[in-house]
Design brief:
Radius of gyration: 21 Å
Strand order of the largest sheet: 6-7-8-3-9-10-12-11
Strand content: 25-35%
């Protein structure tokens, strides 16, 4: 299967009065045509910034370096006009906050038709019919009546469905979905995810899914990239995600998911605060200040260790087994990869 998207050494920085913000720090990612990768991590880990850089929608004050290869073209080397020909047609993005991205002065129908008309993919009559069809497919009741409504007349969940319809209507080769189901209830979330999978199969579309939901990542993706401090600290096949065997940060994220079987009285948590990416980054492991397994060598940046096929981790101590203490935090049990008991 051919590679549709390859991101190589992507860095994104912003200048502020407090210092340089190191938002993305050497991201490497690969997506095969028709495949799905998920990017997971806490808020502020650089997930959305990286995808906005891919879409070339960051402000001009952003300093972006590296390479983003899409279908054989380096998106960072293209002119604004060339990028506009791709954006909305070959590459689409579903944004997390639809109210901020929909035009309040245009009807839902006008905005749905816009990608088709801008890229000359349909006549106005054909575009209208396709827009109505997509409104129905994403679950908007009375689609014809809603076609002439304005964004303020829709609920947050309905707006999210409209954004999904806008992202898919032009049949893109690549869809960036940034928390596409964040405002939807569980039942509708399942319907939307099923729709994304269905349309992906129909069009052979590749998808990058940005999410906080580990279950969604495991269900939807082929591979998962775990980001922390603008870096990928673990990359693994989705079927291994819920094991969380390697990086302490991923294990902490998985343990922090509430259980429904009542086996825990306290919800486990990752102690401390996310790494501060303003100014100078720490020279060592970015997770060291929060990691219960840190040792002297963590003052140096860990290497990217290959644990198996398509499984890499940036940690000095891969395959760490952890136990929770009385406060719901994590303590050391053993380090399996090195065979060392601590």
């Amino acid at each position: 299967m051919s590679v549709l998207l390859r991101i190589e050494d992507l860095y994104v920085q912003f200048g502020t009065d407090e210092g340089t913000v190191h938002a993305v720090n050497g991201l490497n990612l690969e997506l095969k045509a028709g495949g799905t990768v998920a990017i997971v991590g806490e808020s502020g880990s650089g997930k959305s910034t990286a995808m906005t850089a891919l879409m070339r929608l960051l402000p001009r004050t952003a300093r972006v370096s590296g390479h983003i290869w899409f279908d054989g073209q380096d998106l960072l080397s293209l002119s604004s006009r060339q990028v506009r020909r791709l954006r909305g047609h070959h590459i689409s993005m579903v944004f997390q906050n639809p109210m901020a991205y929909l035009n309040p002065t245009k009807t839902i129908g006008q905005q749905l038709m816009e990608p088709l008309l801008y890229h000359h993919l349909a006549t106005p009559r054909q575009a209208q019919q396709q827009a109505l069809d997509f409104l129905e497919r994403v679950g908007i009741a009375s689609a014809r009546a809603r076609f002439s409504s304005y964004p303020f007349e829709f609920s947050g969940g309905m707006l999210q469905r409209v954004m999904i319809a806008m992202g898919l209507i032009a049949g893109p080769k690549l869809l960036i979905a940034d928390e596409p189901t964040t405002a939807l209830d569980v039942t509708v979330q399942a319907e939307i995810l099923a729709l994304l999978k269905e349309l992906q199969a129909e069009h052979g579309m590749g998808m990058v899914l940005v999410t906080h939901d580990m279950a969604v990542a495991a269900q939807m993706a082929d591979e998962v990239y775990v980001m922390y401090g603008g870096m990928v600290v673990e990359h693994l096949p989705s079927h291994e995600l819920m094991k969380g065997e390697a990086h302490p940060y991923l294990r902490g994220l998985l343990r922090s998911i509430p259980r429904i079987d009542g086996r825990r009285e306290k919800l486990p948590f990752i102690a401390g605060n996310p790494v501060n990416t303003v100014g100078t980054l720490p020279h060592g492991c970015l997770f060291a200040s929060r990691c219960p397994h840190r040792r002297n060598q963590c003052s140096e940046r860990p290497p990217l260790v290959k644990l198996g096929d398509r499984h890499e981790v940036m940690c000095w101590l891969p395959y760490v087994d952890m136990e929770e203490d009385d406060d719901g935090q994590f303590g050391i049990q053993s380090v399996g990869a090195a065979g060392t008991h601590l």
